[in-house]
Amino acid sequence: MSRFVGQDAILRADCQSARAGRVTNPPQVGNLPHMRRRLFLQALALPCLGAVESDARFTVEARFYDKLPYKKIKCKLCPRECVIDDRERGYCGVRENRGGTYYSLVHSRVCAAHVDPIEKKPLFHFLPGSMAFSVATAGCNVNCKMCQNWDISQSRPEQVTSTFISPQNLADLAGRNQCPSIAYTYSEPVVFCEYVLDSAEAGRAAGVKSVVISGGYVQEEPLKQLCRRVDAIKIDVKAFTDKFYKEIVNGDLKAVLNTLVAIRKSGVWNEVVYLVIPTLNDSDDEFRGLARWMKAELGPDVPLHFSQFHPEYLLKNLPVTPVPTLERAKAICDAEGLHYVYIGNVPGHPAESTWCPKCRRVVVERAGFTVRALHLDKGKCRFCHQAIPGVWEG
Amino acid sequence: MRIEPQYGATRRGFVRAGLAGALAAGAAPAEKSKVVIARDPALRAGGGAPDSGRVLKMLDRAMQSFWGGDSPLDAWKKAVRPGEVVGLKVNCLSGKGAATSPVLVEAICERLQQAGIPQKDIVIWDRLNSDLESAGYRVASRTDRIRCIGNDAAGYGTELAVYGSAGSLLSNTLTRTCDAVINLPVLKDHGIAGVTLALKNLFGAIHNPNKYHTNVGDPYVADVNMLPPIRQKVRFTICDALTAQYEGGPSYMPQWSWPYNGLMVARDPVAMDYTGWQILERKRAEKGMKTFREMKREPVYIATAAGHGLGTNDPKRIDVVEV
User: Cis peptide before B5, with omega less than 30 degrees from 0?
Assistant: First the structure.
């Protein structure tokens, strides 16, 4: 599946909004940098002319696994705990048992790279208006039937065109492109966590932060290591029922909730996204259940984004989420006492902006991925001095 | 090859697929599904590798018994037609020892050519070139000779094929190159899916088999076999049972392998899988091992495949012929 050719291969718009022709202008606040395509191409003047790189270059021993008899291994990266025979791969398709030693095949093997507004992740309380140097490798440890990036997430690394970008090179690229953060996104960073860990360290040394955009299906130890090295984690809660996780995601809700609690305890900045899919996860009970759980376990200040679904992959038979459904979800969660509930993928909606929970005025005004105005002073509402939680300064 | 709606087949698609499947499996309601098992106790004269001449003779017996005709060549002429490009879907992931034997594939290629299929119309294929090489095949892409190519080199289509729980891109070798496919699995155990035989060998035609091993491969194995190009093009199965493996698969584990010295031929992949599964169960019982059910890896996808209309898993409707 060679979808990408030459350097364009790594210039990949990631999300539904881009595909739907709703790409927004770059941020306009102050002197924020934004990337012109030509500059970006120059920046990526790497040995990446679409050629298939040798496998060995991307292969490193995996960090989280147990060796078993008969050259089998048990993967300890995600709760699935695949037991893998020699020469076989796990569910994610990017980690392989070779003679009883387990390898990641995707270290530095970037199949998508783009300079995105941080709002696109979405992270709304993390350096608003900044750009994130966003990368992905092939592979994912679940199989969401609504995946918008299934062509990379559900592929093996050799099935997509990739290029070698070392951790140090990635940190340099972010810096050269005025991106204060690297975002590990598009597919599932958990499956390329060795690359994330190494790149986050390289980035930290270079003054570049790291953010992880994940489904949160990960074991405790790798999550701990991620939390030590990255600066923000956005978790997709795909639904608030086991049934949905079993039938639509091939994952496990409880494991994801455990991840959220662990992130909260670690102190790493965290936001939650919930893609609202008509008929599948859009009931009042689910919204209320999620809000109550978040308030009790994470506190009222963790931002929650309700995103609009667009038909993709194996769920093309369902319609786009009606905006009133998203507004209903927000209203329920507001009423339950969550302070920062957003509506996403609906450019121009007032619930894209951050409202001060005390004085009810807009403190971060957004339109799509554009930050139009910022009324924060050292993380406090400029009008009433209420502290607004988040990472506001680099 | 997208089937709409995405979460199942349309009525028309379902009927079409059903008809194709019924034709492919020869599964008329009153007819039994035939599974021919040919064995040769003297296959390994010196106790080592199978003798190529005896493999050819055993293949002839199996094919003639299954397809009928006055000679083995008559049988092959019933199975394939000149002008078709015939794919040989081998099973090579586990490398030498647990892969489709090149000796068997050589014998098949010999008979195919005698039946009027020129070298240029024969394609040996599996997922990866490296898998083929590790199993003893030489990758070859010249189009005037027998080709041997992995999906990684031939590529996959860009349109999702969808049935039930399965959504996959299909190998170009299957969809674009081949007119007919002879499925060549190995009789062996599978640590997750129970057994890997005719049905599961077609995981080698999709780009994302790693996604379909959960829940003992059920219903994924059955659903993948419902994808129209697979139903329409896989003509019959010759299962390599020269060396079989009853535990520790799919990797090669010599301590759990034994010289079964046989081949199995069937058009009905479900009957083939049921029969092969029972052979492995009997061997496990003989060795004092737990059943697949006790090991929590009973290959229930075989029953699901029967439910899909891909064939029968009812032993009363399977005619096992030993030759």
Answer: yes
| Class of CATH domain A6-48+112-381 | alpha beta
Q: Which residues contact B294 (CB under 8 A, 6 or more apart)?
A: none
Residues of chain B found within 8 Å of residue A158, distances taken between Cβ atoms: 152
Please say whether the beta carbons of B224 and B168 come within 8 A. yes
* Neighbour tally for A49: CB within 10 Å: 10
Mean pLDDT over residues A166-186, rounded?
97
* Eight-class DSSP state of B222: H
Bridge partners (DSSP) of residue B321 are B36
Residues belonging to chain B: 323
| Structural domain that includes position B80 | 11-322
pLDDT digits (tens, 9 = 90+) for A40-54: 434 443 333 333 446
A246 close to B (CB below 8 A): no
Instruction: Please report the ipTM that was assigned to this predicted complex.
Output: 0.84
Using a CB-CB distance cutoff of 8 angstroms, which residues of chain A are in contact with residue B158? Answer: 1, 3
Rounded to two decimals, the pTM is 0.86
**What's the pLDDT tens digit per position in A302-335?**
999 999 999 999 999 999 999 999 999 999 999 9
| Structural domains in chain B (count) | 1
Q: Chain A residue with minimal CA distance to B128?
A: A158
* pLDDT band at residue A28 using 50, 70 and 90 as cut-offs: very low
Chain B residues whose beta carbon lies within 8 Å of the beta carbon of residue A309: none
Angle at B200 between CA B198 and CA B203, to 5 degrees: 120
Can you give the pLDDT at residue A82?
97
Identify the CA nearest to A159 among candidates B171, B179, B29.
B171
State whether B169 and A1 contact (CB < 8 Å): yes
Residue B316 resides in a domain: yes
- To test the contact with chain B by mutation, choose from A143, A151, A246 the residue with the greatest count of B C-beta atoms within 10 A, namely A143
